[in-house]
Design goal:
The chain is of the alpha+beta class. The protein is built from 10 helices and 19 strands. The N and C termini lie far apart (51 Å). The structure holds glycine (GLY) and manganese (II) ion (2 copies). Glycine binds next to loops.
Amino acid sequence: MGYREQRLTKLRQAMKAEGVDALLIASPTNRRYISGFTGSSGYAVVTERNAWLFTDFRYVTQAGEQAAGFDIVEHGASALATIGDTLRAAGAASLGFEQQHLSYGAYLAYGKDIGSGIRLVPTDGLVERLRRIKDESELAVLREAVAIADKAFEHILTVLKPGLRERDVALELEMFMRRLGAKGSSFDIIVASGERSALPHGVASDRIIGADEFVKMDFGALYDGYCSDLTRTVVIGKPTPKHREIYDIVLEAQLATLAGLRAGMTGSEGDALARNVIASRGYGERFGHGTGHAVGMDIHESPRLSKTESSTLEPGMVVTVEPGIYLPGFGGVRIEDIVVVTENGCDVLTKSKKDFITL
Ligand code: GLY
Ligand code: MN
Ligand code: MN
């Protein structure tokens, strides 16, 4: 069975458990995961026996090429009216929809357009739950996405110098990743220098990078539908003992997490691997975010490595490990890798070096 058939089989099991005859998948990411269709408009609808991809005139040919195993239907002025007619003909009485992805306005319109005899039923994360465990085809793409970010980091080390604007460093990273085949950045690139490096999510600004300060860079490639996520912090010029001190603590916390993380732990136990190191050095208050998050087609997925995450890590989950320390008025450090959780530990996909780098 191919990967896509396996996903459909698992989805049908989940639908059965949920008690819905059909599922409407409208979120672009979930739709792509289930059907392979990458167009900007369309609905995958799955029943026990059928899998349809409803789209409009612009995408019919593309859908036929991408959504193997799906019947392609060109919908009329109202997609939901066409879907309603199709489901009534197939004898479906209930249609699950993705409650996290539907606006209230769209919900009201669905109810009107779908027509009589079909009950709309909210469902929560049926496809997202499948996406938590990455299959081999996904891991291969994620490895590529990570490799592109690794190469961009190596490149940017040859470019970074005082006098550059943060924004220009971000542009250089993005152009480099796109030349290597990325569709774009997987999120707004963070380049935060000097005091700005204390902003955990300091998106690149007009600030000119100075001498003797941190530059924290957090970026990733969007490649073939999957996201990578990489953070490195370097010092431009001469570091002070404080730069060195907090860098070493974050690195120790990051390495301790990579060494300890494994399937069977909860997300909060994974988080504690980093948090305990940082807290024991007196900087617990300055590490105010989670240790990591799952990553895949979306940059932030479940589960998280956070104080409150109760779900258990399983083999095949892909998560970031990204502790940090942020000192307002001075600067901050984060070090972030991507790993695949395994039975006995984790495989680190990220290859970029993380010893204390001064340029
Ligand atoms: N850049 C977003 C994150 O690391 O989570
Ligand atoms: Mn990141
Ligand atoms: Mn991240």
